[in-house]
Structure formats: structure tokens, C-alpha cells
Write a structure and sequence with these properties.
The structure holds two protein chains of two kinds. Chain A has helices spanning 3-22, 30-56, 71-82, 84-95, 105-120, 122-126, 135-138, 145-165, 168-179, 187-198, 205-238, 250-276, 285-316, 319-330, 334-352, 360-386, 407-430, 436-482. By secondary structure, chain A is mostly helical. Chain B has two domains: 2-71, no CATH class; 92-298, Alpha-Beta Plaits (2-Layer Sandwich). The chains are: A mainly alpha, B alpha+beta. At the A-B interface, helix 7 and helix 8 of A face strand 4, helix 6, helix 7, strand 8 and helix 12 of B.
Chain lengths: 483, 332
């Protein structure tokens, strides 16, 4: 095998990879413009609705005294859940040295960053007096689960921003260096941006060493922080005495639910970028198969958590909890509840257990169901409990004893979702959606593996050759002694 | 309070007259040049909204004036400072007792409360439930204010200390600090708290006038903040009883100070609290939650009124739909 040829091979491959990764940052097609335009329209309308809500009070939503938390808080839990995707794929797969993580880390980390931004503002949207938000700093009480949330989410936000930025540094340097050769719009701005974000990266040995070291530290730090985030999100509910929330399993239940819905969203992101930016060569069916297994494992744990969360109280049927469970199992929420359980637990397990189910199309469909179902599930955790207080609901205005989000809540929530898509789109138009240097390393490792295999083959061939000759020699002396 | 309770016993017909006069002398302030004196007179004024009706009032310099009703304004002493409102009335531990055997569900307590706090009809700080715990058990009416728990779930979860527990046992909300997160509403197992979803009703805002805010009187209310039953601490400071207590025509509600071991009802009957609770087998709502309410109930034994109408409850159970409040029948 010619080593020189091999090196040229790798070099070519890396050049193609760099080109593939950077190409989307240079184009700004008509479709993209339409897409961004429609997202801006949705955001604009949502903003208008929010201003309406600010001026007229939360009374413009469907929330009333019994259901005092609704779609906003459900969305908060859902978005913060999605934000666990980055940690799962990046940190857990990094720490367990899963090579196949390389092409998907960037999109997962981005998803974490964006969903944290938009998840974090949900409680602020839900506040009656957002103008007094600084009271949280002035009069903050550490005893309140809400303060735990703020501390934990802010820590996670800082951590995941660093975690997103660190592996971008070498790529920013690459963008900066490559920008010179090709003409693009906003060149001046881009040059400034890339130079700024590359923070003087030259790719020296000591720089690489420091990057690797920091990444390792961040990987170890981010996992417990991520676990703490969804644990304290669940504590907002679990620290109350309400039936349905007063549950010791809520912490782990939320963490597992978050990882599971988050990894499903990673698959959706993978599929979208693979198709839109023609990354078929790097994100292969094998990647989908492997992450499909991860989602399957998480679904199984989630199913187990559901069993604990519902079967234990359902066996006992204590008075207040019994009313709630009756409503969920056979009452007004039964259709939503059972559809949700079927779609997000049973169906994914059935589909993903088979290799055919982990092919791209069925997997993407399953993940859409999982993501939508996870959102509905958050709603089913928040709302029915509030409609089943200990004291009976008697003679109140008709709007108090029912709840379904109205146009204001839907518009504002849609705007937040559109915001997530917008930030991801803009990000992908500025920065490579794969960690180029990580995939490069992957190619190198793949080649090295190939080289090792070839070396072994050569050795085996040589050994076989050697074995043949001495065998012939050995046989003769034996026959000799026999004689 | 004890001194006053004794007085009340002697002078059962006008329970708050003495207190009112004393406060009048204490504050001695004039509102719109004329001051109203005595609970009984105040009652006349409050019931009689006809304009032009003449009534006699006593001014601070001891002269009697005659004035028309629309020239008069209810006297309210200046509220205490925020720091004082957070501390509470020294050496008191307020407690409320409901004798369920006497409650006929007339909702006069709710009305009195709503009048006192300029509340809209859907905001029942004290709400009367029709209860029927089990088929074989007797149905009864259950008036429910805030329980001012000694282990309050609501104040624990408040992120900004906008709702707090005072030394005298009362749990209040400071609507100048409340950020409207509604964590306390989620935490309260008794569904006691109300949220100001929209701008306060303009009629009520006008009625409140330019009264300075204090957590002790809970008004003027503000959009985007939480409110609830406050045990009328502004009344307590004046030595008067909460609105619901004086408003109850059935003498169901007893109110007093646990330190004095005495509670009094609207008719001025004062009883020894510990004995009263012990002899009547008092209980608290949802004791198993460990919230330690400051409100006790005497079981509805030997009811002194006809049985509650269970039509609504049966209908609710059958249709699995909660009864709508008939807003038209409610009067402010």
C-alpha cells in the first residue's frame, strides 16, 4: 500500500468535506428567504399578541383561577426537555468515545442552546408582572423552587453556550481562512465575525492541547448540570401537595422524558440538515440506526417511569389522586392521555425494535410523533392536576372550570417555535452545521483503522506464507523420526 | 382583644361601637371635613345609598353636624408601613372557628367580605361550599376563607417574599412586590388564592379612590398580582372583627386571639377557645397535608337549618361538569 497515495486520499477527502460543510454558508436561496420571511411573520404576529397580553393582562389568555398555569408552562417544560439533546449526544457520547457522534454534535449542541433560550423565556411570558422581574434579584429567596430553576437554567445556559462555542473555534478559523478565496455577500461582516469568533486560533499544538483539555472538563461538568436542570423543573410541581404532582418519581421521570424527547428532536435535526445541505455522505443510515437504538433505550426507560408514575397511584386510588386518575384514564382527558401513551411509548418501541424501523423514513416519522406527543404529555401533566384541586370546584364562572389554550397562547407559543427555527436557520447560514475538525479527525481515525486492518491482513498473509514453508520442513523431520 | 371581648359581652347589640369610638378618639382625623362615628352609624350609611338622606355626625372637636350622605366618605385610618404590615400585630395569634351546625349557606359572609374589599362577585375570598362527603353522611355547608396555615405551602414557594407569614399568624400578599408567577396558587392545596388576570374593575377602582396601598387592606388591587383573604388586619388594628365575622347573621364564625384563648362571634358571645374546640370535637380541613391551618371547624352535628339542596352537586357528579356561577344573581 502506498502511503503517499493514502495521504493524498485523506487530503482530498478532507477538502471535499470542508467544501460540503461551508457551502451552505455561502448561498442564500430564494426558498431560504421565503422560509425566513414566513418565520418572521409568525414571530411578528406572536409579538403583537404578547404586547396585547402585556397591556390587557393575562386575562386575554384562557387561563383562569383554577388553571393558573397552562400552555406557557407546558411549553417551558417541553423546551427545557429538548435542551437535553445536546448534552446527551455531545457529552454522553463523547465521554463514552462513540465515534459516530462526530457529524451530529454541532446540531445537537445548537438545539440545546436555542431551546434553552426560548424555553427560558416561557416563564417570563407567563409572568403577571414581567416589569418586576428584577425583584427576583432584589428579593430572591433560595427556598423557592423557582429560584432553583433560575439558577440551574442559567448555569446550564452558560455551560451549553461554552460547550457550543468551544468546538466552533477551529471551524471559525477555517471559515476565516477560506473566506478570502470565495466571494460572498456581507463579506466584511463575515470576516469580522469569523475573526472575532476564532479568537486567534492558529491550530498550534498547544492550542489543540488546551482545546481538548477544556472540552474534556466541560463534558464532565455539563452532564450533572443538565440532570439538575430538569430535576428542578420537575420540583416546581413535585414540591406542591397537589394530586398528580406530589410524586417522588418526578425528578428522574422528567430527566428521562427530557433526554428521550431531546434525542428524538436530534434525529429530526439530523434528517433535516442531511437533506437540505446534502450531507448524505457524512450522516449515513448507520448513524440513524445507532441513534435510533439510543432513542429506543430511552423510550424503554421512559415506559418504565410511566409505569411507576401511573400504576402505583392507580392501584391505590387515593381520594384526590383517584379523581384525577379517573379523569385521565376514562374521563375528559382519556382520549388525549391514551393516544399520547400509545403514540409515545408503545408505538416507538414497536417500530424501533426492528432494524427496518430504524431506517430513516420510519425513524423520522416516529420521532415527529415522539416530539409532538412529548409536548402533549407536558400539557397533560400541568393542566388536569390544576383542574382537580382538593376543594371541589363549585359555582364558579364557566370559564374557570375548563381550559383550552386560546389564540393568544397559541400565537405566542408558535412565535417561540418559529424563533427556534429562525435562530437555527440563521446559524446554519453563518456557520458550518458539522464540526468540521471533529469529522476530519473521524476520517483520519477511519483511515487509520483501515490501515491497521490492511496491516493485519498483510501480516496474516505473510504469516500464512511462513506457516506453509516451515510446515513442509517440519513434516519431513517427523516422518524422518518415524522412519 | 380580651378587654374588648368582655365589653362585647356586656353590650351584645352593638359589638363594635366601643371599639369604633375609641378609634375615633385615637385617630381623630377628618375626612372631607366630617367624620363618621360608630359601627352602627356606619352601617346605616353603608346600607343607605340614597342620595340626599341626612344623618348626624360627630366632628373631632366634639360638635354634632348634620350632613347629606353623598357628602360623607367612610373613614379609614392611614395604613401602616410595609415593614409593619410584614411584621404583624404584636403578641397576637389570630384564629377563626366555624360552627358548621349553624351555617345555613346564606353567603352573607361572602357578601360582607366582597363589600369590604371592593371585590368583584367572582372573587370569593370566603367561599361557601355545599359538601356531601359520602352518601350515608349528612350534607352540610362549608364556608372557607384562607386558612392562614402555620406551615404555609404558599409562602415557602414564593420566589420574592411577596407573600409572607406574620408573627400574628396571618399570611398576607404584598401586591407591590408580587411578580405574578402564580407559584403560590399552584402550591395552595385549598385553592384560596385569586389572580388579577385583567385591569381592576373601574367601578371598584373609583370606590377605592386614592387610598394608599398596604398589604393589610389588599387594595387598591393591581393587574398581574395575586390576592386572597387577609383576615382584615386593618380592621383588627382598629380592634374590630373581620368583615365575614360581623357579616354572619347565623353566628357561625368565631374570631379571636389564641394567646388569649378566647374567640367571639358577631353577637358578641365570647368563649374559651381551647374548651370550645375540645368539647365540640373541632377539626381542620385536610389535616393530613400538614399545613397546620389556623381555621378550625366544629362538625355539623344537630344542624339548626334545613339540609342543603344537593341538586347541584348530584348534577355535577352525574354530568361530570362543574356548576357555572350565576353571575346575574350575585349582588355587589
Amino acid at each position: 500500500m502506498n502511503l503517499e497515495n493514502e495521504k493524498i486520499d485523506i487530503k482530498n477527502e478532507i477538502e471535499i468535506l470542508r467544501e460540503d460543510c461551508l457551502r451552505p454558508t455561502r448561498t442564500f436561496s430564494r426558498n431560504t428567504q421565503i422560509w425566513i420571511g414566513s418565520l418572521l411573520v409568525i414571530i411578528g404576529w406572536g409579538l403583537y399578541c404578547y404586547i396585547h397580553q402585556l397591556r390587557q393582562g393575562l386575562g386575554v389568555t384562557a387561563m383562569r383561577n383554577y388553571v393558573s398555569w397552562g400552555l406557557y408552562i407546558s411549553t417551558f417544560v417541553f423546551f427545557i426537555g429538548i435542551s437535553h439533546s445536546g448534552t446527551l449526544v455531545s457529552a454522553i457520547l463523547r465521554i463514552t468515545k462513540q465515534e459516530w457522534r462526530r457529524p451530529i454534535t454541532r446540531s445537537a449542541e445548537l438545539l440545546t442552546f436555542v431551546s434553552l433560550c426560548f424555553g427560558g423565556i416561557q416563564p417570563i411570558i407567563d409572568l403577571g408582572r414581567p416589569d418586576r422581574i428584577f425583584n427576583l434579584v432584589l428579593f430572591g429567596r433560595l427556598q423557592s423552587p423557582l429560584i432553583w430553576d433560575i439558577i440551574s437554567i442559567c448555569t446550564y445556559f452558560c455551560g451549553s453556550t461554552v460547550f457550543l462555542f468551544l468546538p466552533m473555534i477551529p471551524d471559525m478559523a477555517l471559515c476565516r481562512d477560506k473566506l478570502v478565496v470565495c466571494d460572498t455577500r456581507y463579506k466584511k461582516f463575515k470576516k469580522w465575525l469569523y475573526t472575532f469568533m476564532a479568537i486567534g486560533w492558529k491550530g498550534t499544538k498547544s492550542q489543540w492541547h488546551r482545546l481538548e483539555k477544556t472540552m474534556t472538563i466541560m463534558t464532565i461538568i455539563i452532564i450533572p448540570v443538565a440532570v439538575s436542570v430538569h430535576t428542578v423543573v420537575s420540583y416546581i410541581f413535585a414540591m406542591t401537595l397537589r394530586p398528580g404532582w406530589d410524586s417522588t418519581v418526578f425528578g428522574p421521570y422528567f430527566v428521562v422524558g427530557a433526554l428521550y424527547s431531546g434525542s428524538a428532536c436530534v434525529i429530526l435535526g439530523m434528517a433535516a440538515f442531511r437533506k437540505l445541505y446534502h450531507l448524505e455522505k457524512y450522516i449515513t443510515p448507520r448513524h440513524f440506526d445507532l441513534i435510533g437504538r439510543v432513542v429506543l433505550a430511552l423510550t424503554l426507560i421512559y415506559a418504565y417511569m410511566n409505569l411507576n408514575e401511573y400504576w402505583i397511584p392507580a392501584y391505590k386510588m387515593a381520594t384526590a389522586e383517584g379523581h384525577l386518575l379517573n379523569d385521565l384514564f376514562s374521563g375528559s382527558y382519556s382520549t388525549a392521555f391514551w393516544t399520547c401513551q400509545f403514540g409515545t411509548v408503545l408505538l416507538p418501541i414497536l417500530i424501533m425494535s426492528f432494524p427496518k424501523g430504524r431506517k430513516i423514513t420510519p425513524l423520522v416519522i416516529t420521532c415527529i410523533i415522539i416530539a409532538a406527543g412529548a409536548w402533549v404529555k407536558r400539557y397533560l401533566i400541568v393542566v388536569p392536576t390544576l383542574l382537580h384541586p382538593f376543594m371541589p370546584i363549585q359555582e364558579v364562572p364557566g370559564t374557570w372550570s375548563t381550559y383550552f389554550p386560546n389564540y393568544v397562547e397559541f400565537s405566542v407559543t408558535a412565535a417561540c417555535l418559529a424563533g427556534i427555527f429562525l435562530v437555527i436557520t440563521l446559524f446554519s447560514k453563518l456557520f458550518p452545521m458539522m464540526a468540521v475538525w471533529e469529522v476530519e479527525e473521524g476520517i483520519q481515525i477511519e483511515h487509520d483503522k483501515q490501515a491497521v486492518i490492511e496491516l493485519r491482513e498483510q501480516r496474516e498473509v505473510a504469516e500464512a506464507k511462513q506457516m506453509k514453508e516451515p510446515k513442509a520442513k517440519l513434516i519431513t523431520p517427523i516422518t524422518n523420526t518415524n522412519n | 382583644m380580651a378587654e374588648e371581648n368582655n365589653k362585647n359581652e356586656n353590650n351584645a347589640g352593638t359589638p363594635s361601637e366601643n371599639a369604633g369610638r375609641r378609634n375615633f378618639l385615637k385617630y381623630g382625623a377628618l375626612t372631607a371635613g366630617l367624620t363618621l362615628v360608630g359601627g352602627s352609624l356606619l352601617k346605616v350609611f353603608a346600607d343607605n345609598k340614597e342620595q340626599g338622606e341626612k344623618m348626624k355626625v360627630l366632628s373631632s372637636d366634639g360638635k354634632v353636624y348634620e350632613a347629606t350622605c353623598n357628602q360623607l366618605q367612610e373613614f379609614r385610618p392611614a395604613p401602616v408601613s410595609n415593614a409593619e404590615a410584614r411584621k404583624g400585630i404584636p403578641n397576637k395569634k389570630f384564629v377563626m372557628v366555624f360552627d358548621l351546625s349553624k351555617c345555613d349557606g346564606c353567603k352573607k359572609c361572602t357578601e360582607a367580605c366582597q363589600k369590604m374589599h371592593y371585590t368583584e362577585s367572582d372573587r370569593e375570598w370566603i367561599k361557601v361550599f355545599t359538601m356531601h362527603d359520602a352518601k350515608a353522611e349528612a350534607p352540610y355547608y362549608l364556608p372557607k376563607p384562607c386558612f392562614h396555615c402555620d406551615n404555609p405551602t404558599c409562602t415557602k414557594v414564593c420566589p420574592v417574599n411577596a407573600t409572607f407569614k406574620r408573627e400574628d399568624g396571618i399570611v398576607l400578599v404584598d401586591n407591590e412586590r408580587c411578580i405574578g408567577c402564580r407559584m403560590c396558587m399552584a402550591a395552595c392545596p385549598y385553592s384560596t388564592r385569586f389572580f388579577n388576570w385583567s385591569h381592576p374593575n373601574s367601578d371598584q377602582t373609583a370606590a377605592i379612590g386614592n387610598l394608599p396601598y398596604s398589604p393589610e387592606q389588599s387594595v387598591p388591587r393591581r393587574m398581574g398580582t395575586v390576592e386572597k383573604c387577609d383576615f382584615c388586619p386593618d380592621m383588627l388594628r382598629q380592634g374590630k372583627m373581620p368583615a365575614c365575622v360581623t357579616g354572619c347573621p347565623m353566628d357561625v364564625i368565631y374570631f379571636g386571639d389564641q394567646n388569649e384563648d378566647a374567640v367571639t362571634n358577631a353577637s358578641g358571645v365570647t368563649v374559651k377557645l381551647s374548651q370550645f374546640l375540645e368539647q365540640n370535637a373541632a377539626y381542620r380541613q385536610l389535616e393530613e397535608l400538614g399545613t397546620e391551618p389556623r381555621v378550625y371547624y366544629l362538625p355539623p352535628k344537630n344542624r339548626k337549618y334545613p339540609a342543603p339542596d344537593l341538586k347541584n352537586i348530584e348534577k355535577e357528579k352525574k354530568e361530570k361538569k362543574h356548576i357555572d356561577m350565576d353571575m346575574s344573581s350575585m349582588q355587589m
